[in-house]
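Below is the record:
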Amino acid sequence: MESIIIYEDEGYRKLLPLTYNRPVFDLRCVINTIREKIIREYNTKKIVLFCRDYLKETLLESDNNLLINQFTGESALIINGRLLANGLKNKIPPDGEDCIYTCKGEVAAVRVSGDNLKKVLNSLNYFIQKCLSM
């Protein structure tokens, strides 16, 4: 696995009004944000965030080194920003074959590489641009 992508999906709407001004992965769960928990679990430096466009500037204010809504690379573990799980790395290993992980009928994570990665990222970008910017 080359990098971790943390994204928000339409499920952010279920968490309104908490998610009006922040992406779902920046909600706090006890002391840490969901994003911090995922980063700590996988212990990686290359993190890319996908969120609603209007939140990009707010995220960059907190850390201007963040990669937001852009990705270059050959492989990634793409994790839903609403995902809360203990022992996440054991349930969704960072390396292996391309695979989709679901929970209760929703996508929890996707491990993907090569041409499949390009297709997934195009879908994710389309979703971010068309659905979340409303």
